[in-house]
Structures are given as C-alpha cells and as structure tokens.
Amino acid sequence: MPLIPRDVQEFLNGYPDGTDDRTLTANLEFYMNERRCRPDYLRIDELHDQWWENYDVLEYNHGFIQWLFPIREHGMNFQSQPLQLHEIESMKANPAVVNRIKKSYALMLDFYGMKLVSEETGCISRSTTFKARYENLVRSSHNNLRISRILKCLSEFGLEHFNAGFLLHVLNEQSEHRMLDAGAIRNSMDRWWANCIRDDAERNWIAEVTRKVRAGGQFVFTREMYEQALERRQSEGKFSWSNIKS
C-alpha cells in the first residue's frame, strides 16, 4: 500500500504537537445545539432537519463540513475551530451529542448513496438513490477530502468501528460490482481513508483485504464476505481471515 500521508500520520500519532485550549468551546456548543455554525448560521438540529436529502446544498456549500465533523486540524473554513481535547471528553460523555454525531454521519452517507444498517457493526447498504449519488461521488472529487475528515472525526468520538463498515462497503462495491471504482476514489481510499483507523490490527487487516482486491485475479470481496466480517468482528472483537470464506 502507498505511504501514509503526513496529515494521516499525525492523526494516527494522536497529534503529538497539538494543544488543548480550554477557552475554545465552539464545537461543543454547536453539538449541544447552543451555537450556530458559520457561515450557514444553523444550529445542528436545524441543519440535520433542513439539509436531509438536500443534495445541491450539501454539494455546493463547503463551510458546514468542518462543523459537522470537527477534527484536531485546521480546515478551509476559518469561521470554524479545530477540535480541542477537552471538547472531545465532554462530547463523548454526552449521549445527545453522540447521537447528533451519528445523525451527521447518516446525513452524509445518504448524500453518498448509502445508509447505515447497523450501529453495532457499522454495516452499510445502498440507499434508494445510490446510482445518482454514486455518480456524484465519482464526479465530485472534493468529497474525497470530506470523507477523510469524517473518518478521522468518527475515530475521535469512539465511533471508529463505523470506519471499517464504510471502507469495506466501498471495497465490496469496487470488487463485486465495479462501482465507485474510479482512480481518484481508489487513490483516496488506499492512501487516506483506509489509514484513518487508529487500531493497528484493524487497519492492517483492511489493508490486506484491499491488497487482495487490487491484485485482481480470482478473489472477489463479496457482500456476503462484507457482512460476515463485520458480524464476526462484533462477536469476536477483531477481524481475522477466518471471517472470510475465500
């Protein structure tokens, strides 16, 4: 697999040069539904309600993603704030906030033509509008950067098991159906997305399955393999090659 990009390596290392400014609370307040994001001037609950299936708004507005998925890096929206360690602690401890993060993930999955089938395993399926949404994802490469941010954010908030569900769903679409198989998506997936998992064993397992798919040959990562892998990880606590009947 390609070398890990610098921003992803810093994420994997836990941002060793990062600081925690306890005076900065914008992300916490936004997810508490107490602050409006900028420049869209919406509270989180309003954004979830008003922008669901509003695909043009989600495609052509670029400032909201830093608010929906805060990470410990500066983004392109200078009216947003990098995520602080104390915010992570407070947000993870608040069930209402965690549920809102899950809603944000569901919002973007729908935008990408997907839906979350199981919060426990992270399993994803196609949405009813997947054909048009997949075409948009292939065509609009700025979404590749958004997905990297989404995966990093989920990891920060204890939802990293969703990352494998997303990655392996895309891998299944590429391997079995030749969908989402554009070069730009494969490059983003192999270099960025697949490395946005801090669990070393899980990241390495996904990398190995991806290598098998990329190598061609007879191996096909099927939907059945995808579902079995996630279900057995849920029951056994880890991925293993026994998860896949090849």
From TrEMBL:
Molecular function GO labels: opioid growth factor receptor activity
InterPro entries: OGF_rcpt, OGFr
Domain Opioid growth factor receptor (OGFr) conserved: 24-222
Domain of life of the organism encoding this protein: Eukaryota
Pfam family membership, one: OGFr_N
Gene Ontology CC: one annotated term: membrane
The family this protein is said to belong to: Belongs to the opioid growth factor receptor family.
Protein name per Swiss-Prot or TrEMBL: Opioid growth factor receptor (OGFr) conserved domain-containing protein
